Fold this protein.
Amino acid sequence: MVLEELVQIKEQELASRKKFTLRCCLAAGCVSSNAQAVKDALDRAVKEAGLEKEVEVRGVGCMRLCCEGPLVAVDPAEVLFEKVAPADCDALVATLKGVPSQLKRGDLTAPFFKHQLSIVLENCGLVDPDRIESYIAADGYLALRNVLREMTPQEVVQLVTRSGLRGRGGAGYPTGLKWATVAKTTSSRKFVICNADEGDPGAFMDRSVLESDPHRVIEGMIIAAYAVGADQGFIYVRAEYPLAIQRLQTAIRQAKQYGLLGSGVFESPFNFNIEIRIGAGAFVCGEETALMASIEGRRGQPRPRPPFPAESGLWGHPTLINNVETFANIPPIALKGAEWFAGIGTERSKGTKVFALAGKITNTGLIEVPMGTPLRTIVEEMGGGAPEGGQIKAVQTGGPSGGCIPASQLDTPVDYESLAKLGSIMGSGGMIVMDQTTNMVDVARFFMEFCMDESCGKCVPCRAGTVQMHHLLRKVMDRKATSRDLAKLEELCDMVKNTSLCGLGQTAPNPVLSTLRYFRNEYLELLQPAPKQPAAVAPATGIF
Amino acid sequence: MAAKTLTIDGQMVGAAEDQTILEAARDAGIHIPTLCHLEGVQDVGACRLCLVEVTGINKLLPACVTKVTEGWEVRTSSERLQRYRRMVLELLFAERNHVCAVCVANGHCELQNLAVSLGMDHVRFDYQHPRLDVDLSHRLFGMDHNRCVLCTRCVRTCWYIEGAGTLNVAGRGEKSKIITDLNAPWGDSTTCTSCGKCVMACPTGALFYRGVTVAEMERDRGHLEYIVTAREKKQWIV
Amino acid sequence: MDRLRLATVWLGGCSGCHMSFLDLDEWLLELAARVELVYSPIVDHKVYPDNVDLCLIEGAVANHDNLELVHRIRERTRVLVSFGDCAVSGNVTAMRNPLRKTEPVLKRAYLELADVSPRIPAEPGIVPTLLDRVAAVHEIVPVEYYLPGCPPPAERIRTLLSQLVEGREPRLNGGLIKPG
């Protein structure tokens, strides 16, 4: 592959476009509401209407508004049909000829769409994830070509550093700094890992990106590998995402066929291969040292850091680990420049963030907004507030490692520091909205149960501490706890947070701590009075 | 090899640069409690008893896997550390069925000794009382999961000293369990060499010689260290 | 000074702790001079009295009578001591807890192992019913001090009691808190 071929593929692809395109979402959300049958029905309807020459039916990735799926978009009319059933497809195709229909149409000017700024998701819902040509037509792999041909690895690292991009996996570590560290190590082998072990309850950002635009992630990985000097990459993806795995496999095969992976990428001296490693369902394998152990074929358990993976990672070699969304940000940064990216977002949090909106909210789905967007804009305007006239009570971010932000704090801008200040975290992007019917103690109990089940069992505070915290939370819920139990719970939160070996245990108390901070009354209302006993005597006078 | 100077509990300590805080402290006569640490096998930093404070570092650091650094001020027994350590023990005692009175290791148990030395006179957390088995299928040894603290000393000993790879951990979280081979009865293991090193490594009454009864299970704690020292340093020091 | 009102009770345990208490031998005479024993398995009091200063509780909370008594004790006693491992941790008494229910224990003891007339005892009001889960005393009510040991040796009991009767905050450390 050389530039001319890339351009040629793009031009061919664009030239083959038909008058109309029906984009049918084939990402997991819509597929689960029968989108594959809708796609098949569209194909058939187009054929029966004799419109094959004028209409392309394209299976695409996520078009954001999952709650209204299956979604079908019409180009160039800019119409979005919602809740499309296979039986609707004849009528839908007929609209192309100007026949009016009663089909449910989405309002593309609604705040849900209007406030979005797509960088990571810019191709999602547009390109066909199963065809590399479709990606190339959207300027895919152009960034990689430019990087390989026009930049030194050092310059790539500097580019990412200047962009201000921070890790999208949750902790927000500066990506450029991480790349620079790996780049500076001298080792005969280095590795790049894409962490696609998205496991937070309610989170489906990475899943959507992988299902909708797998080449974007692969391109980001190749650029990263070039920057740090790695020749082997792994994508660690959970087995619960079969569609993502299948599309990644297809994408890797296609990229190899075009000479974008393997020996001599873009006919340069740079070699890079990617293998997929499928996780067996352990949440803790999202923790980088556990993830690496799992890739190596060992039990997926974290180990103490240092050494950090950048220094000693896979099989002891320097290893760069970034998450899906981080890699997906790389090609546009390389194409449009660090300054463009750094111009979006806030002082310390650059670019956009993808969130998966779920819970007690009218519009559930995927959104991408600039960093610094107020939570209120996200949940009230874009999300449309709580359904059926409900009142939003809290927003949970960061999954089991995060916290519950009360409605009174909804004007907080979404960025790493602001969320941390409220006792939550940005996390990977799960956002669960709760209304007045949600019991916050039960929310804390739910997340604690999750951590308890997902603790690897290696270190004592996490293994046994989560069990006891969950037990105490259940006791509160069952109205059997006293103020002594609440004190024990708080003491355990402090201990588990400060003594656990890895992030799972260190953050497991966060949902409890944040609900105690903002909704303490809900705990107190459930407490039992302590057993009666004679008044204690002041110690100074002796114990009797 | 370069030497490092640091202070541990206010005491100036010299250490080799590849030493851990735990080793430096022990050389200086400062005791840091441990449970998953075992001389002769690699450390995993799992029990969290050896966590120490270092001035200027926010996180607590496990002394067993943290290398010394020039100029560090290390504190090994602050009130907070003592409290956390007691809680680690409480969590362990509440997690499984540690009934000292009827345990083979009574009087020779590291968990029991830690409870005494760290002042844990009772457990504030509700006992979980899980239902667990005792594997008596091996002709020489027994494995009582009721007494296991999942320190994995036996697993590491089996892999790194004996090289048999019989023992391992299955399951996760509170359901973690030491297994032999692919969770077959110990007696059916095709890899176990019956060397008994795991039994020597066990800090509690979880692994024992068959035939011993309450309070009879004494172990030669120095034996594993002796083997490793002989093997690696060619020193046969009894 | 009035003599300290002392009680000792025997819940779900083997009475070994009380045997150990009796091992205090002649020191018991000294103790008797300083305390009034108001309730104990070794004296004939039927009802746990009011205004008790100090109570040593042997045994775990294993049946409904234990449960009721331990609440009454807490209401009427200023200082409670969990006396021995069963009170402190449940110990042997709690070894049936992994079975979760009383039925398999009763079946094993009274049916499968019975020599003559196998029958699970059931006399409401006379034979107290077992709790499904045996609890340590402090799992039910707050306890001030803990004296582990199975049983705690007499010396250990003496150390604790001599400090308590002098009104001092007891300090038990080192081997004095060894369980088992």
In short: The helical segments of chain B are 21-27, 79-95, 110-117, 153-162, 197-201, 222-233. The mean pLDDT of chain B is 96.
